What we know:
heterodimer; A: 2 domains; 8 helices; B: mainly alpha
Amino acid sequence: MMKWVFGLMLLLSVIFGIITGNAAPLTESALNSCVEAVELFLYLIGGMCMWGGLMRIAEKAGLTRGLAKIFRPLFKLLFPGLDPSSKAYGLICMNVAANVLGLGNAATPIGLNAMHELEIEAKKANLDGTAASRHMIVFIVLNTASITLIPQTAASLRLKHGSLSPFDIFPAVIVTSVIALTAGLLIALVFNAAGKKISAEKERQCDISEVKI
Amino acid sequence: MNYTSYIIPVLIALIIVAGFVKKVDIFNEFIDGAGESLRVGVGILPALIALMTAIGMFKASGALGAITDIIAPAATLIGFPPEALPLALIRPISGSGALATYETILTEVSPDSFAGRVASVMMGASETTFYTVAVYYGATKVTKTRHTIAACLTSDITAFIFSALTVNLLMN
């Protein structure tokens, strides 16, 4: 995917730039953008490390575990039929808690473990192993919607570009991410319910045909 | 002074207090966590250089402006600022690409302008969907993702539309 995005952008730029007579700025940007990338990196790395350090303290103080406990009862609605005492359920709660705290590095390995456990759960239920189970889909929606406590990167860059109050986007970010997550979850749960109905009907038809024979 | 100015200092104090209460070796843990973030950052740098170059050249050639001009009327119709459009296009595909695009947008418009704020909310409220889906299913034997992409993209599109709506409603 990225191979195409990267290649096509560069090729289109060169073709479009030469046709429109923008060869000079094109050359300048070809030589300068890499420097800008390093400047951007230097600007962001300080904040990344500062929050990485603070959030490590928070994690060691048990904040992730505490937050995961709060999520436990809520997630029963999202993962109907998944045993709350199962390993998968615990890992899901931990993963989302780590994401909320902005602990991306910690969240991914926990999330991958959770996927593995969900695969085992699907096998137990005799589902097709090559198709995503309904719990996997809901879990991935939880991970692709960003519910982060501190929009740190956005705030750092706003500060860099002279924002008067870089954190004033905070309420808008929270409201937007909660609504976006709800929309994604609704689609996932509705399709899940529909999929379940279809497979139940198929089973019923199979039963009938067996009776006829 | 806006109340959002209190969020960070209070949060830092809470984390330190929690660390002391739970007898965490707060200095060494901070160093460990910061070191890990540094390694992650260094890992991102090559991709950032690649994509800043691609987006920089795309912008300098005038192609970015041309594409934005084409979709701008549709965006304005739903109240979305055209300047923030490129970010909406790359956000689900690439994290480094989104960062590069966001930086480019902020050099064009003020971070406190409508478009600057919408782009910022989008950065904070959405994720690199395709990357996450690829990595998470990569850990399993799943090849049929069923309605995963539909649900995730619904979430992304909702985030884009609501980033403009919430900035309008909550910040003006």
